[in-house]
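Suppose you are handed only these lines of text.
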Amino acid sequence: MAESVHLNRRGVLFVLSSPSGAGKTTISRMMLEADKDIALSISATTRPPRPGEVDGVHYHFVDTETFKKMAADGEFLEWAHVFGHRYGTPRARVDELLEAGKDVLFDIDWQGAQQLYQEAGPDVVRVFVLPPTMEELERRLRSRNTDSDEVIAARMERAANEISHWDGYDYVLINDHVEGCFDEVRAILRAERLKRRRQIGLIGFARDLIRAVPDADKKL
Ligand SMILES: Nc1ncnc2c1ncn2[C@@H]1O[C@H](COP(=O)(O)OP(=O)(O)OP(=O)(O)O)[C@@H](O)[C@H]1O
Ligand SMILES: Nc1nc2c(ncn2[C@@H]2O[C@H](COP(=O)(O)O)[C@@H](O)[C@H]2O)c(=O)[nH]1
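From them, the structure of the protein bound to adenosine-5'-triphosphate can be written out as follows.
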């Protein structure tokens, strides 16, 4: 039997963005559960925790002073103001995950996606998730039972602005049925992992195959 060939590859920085409530956290959790080769970038935020959110698991919950110091010390790969709070991606965890051979999943807004793309360019894959309708978006925000009417109203008000950034993404999906959308997200990740430019050593591998053919250079 032929020996299996393993080439290392560059990690994928996989971004999911959407208007609040469209379902990116749900899909992220499904991804993390299903695929052990991708891990979540845990953001820092000044927003207070929702019921059930655990510090260090869902977010690092920090006060504004701490956040500002982290930003000033260059600890963030990107950060932005979202819904009146600060959110940022700590650089150290991302570096550690990539070093360990993992892909990294980011649940961040369009501002973060833009900044990350400026930092890491072709390593970044940007996926935008749309709700099927705005009525359904509001229904989902309400069904979550985590935010006040005021917070939900503010998020709905901001949704059109979020959606207007859809064309800054590589893929745009409609999260109508969550299982279907999850399958599409997985298919994107699977294909992106196989991209030629991510395969380290592929040039040498192909060259050696060609060289193994006697007089190959004369036949090209
Ligand atoms: N396809 C779907 N059909 C019905 N409900 C859904 C679907 N996808 C997600 N939901 C539900 O909608 C609610 C909002 O989803 P979720 O928290 O994942 O949104 P989000 O985009 O991460 O929001 P935020 O940006 O505020 O974190 C949750 O209660 C979730 O279970
Ligand atoms: N630019 C960044 N945006 C982030 C980050 N972490 C989360 N987010 C986005 O904020 C909103 C609100 O999130 P919520 O948990 O309060 O509902 C949502 O769009 C997230 O994607 C981050 O590190 N940077």
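What can we learn from it? The chain has a mean pLDDT of 95. The longest helix spans residues 178-193.
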